[in-house]
Amino acid sequence: MVSKSLNLEKGFKRLMPFNRFHVERIDSIIVNHFALLSPTGVVMDRFSTAIFNVELEIQRASLLEHFKKAGNMGDTPPPWQPPATAIPIELFNQVILTSHPEVAETLLNNFSRTTGATLPIEGIALLRSTPEVQRHWIKALLE
Fold first, then answer.
1. For residues 43-60, average pLDDT
2. Whole-angstrom Cα distance, residue 42 to residue 55?
3. What pLDDT, in 10s, does the model give residues 55-71?
4. What are phi and psi of 109, to 5 degrees?
5. pTM to 2 decimals?
6. Dihedral, CA of residue 75, residue 79, residue 82 and residue 88, to nearest 10
């Protein structure tokens, strides 16, 4: 059995609130763009990640379980298309979701799936949003 440990001595690579997202499928890769938009539509912050479909399928049941327990979907966030500029895309293969009535946390981590070794987990991002925005992202991710 593989032992995993979350090593956050360095913290997450990225901490960010988001109120918009865009999910894009490219072959077997699912790219996730997150953004914080001002009320006037100005992109105040932006972050992109990717997960391979096979990695997402491993977690589908736990994501659906969280989704079903989460409650009301609320209004769908307005559609957002990320600007067409090249930016780094951080790879992740583990999603941890938490939710509270006011704030939801989406933790994206990365670890090697090599067997027979103790593998550190790298904290890629801790993203905060409203629970409704998180639910809509999960729905888009799993479609």
1. 95
2. 33
3. 999 999 999 888 888 77
4. -125, 170
5. 0.86
6. 40
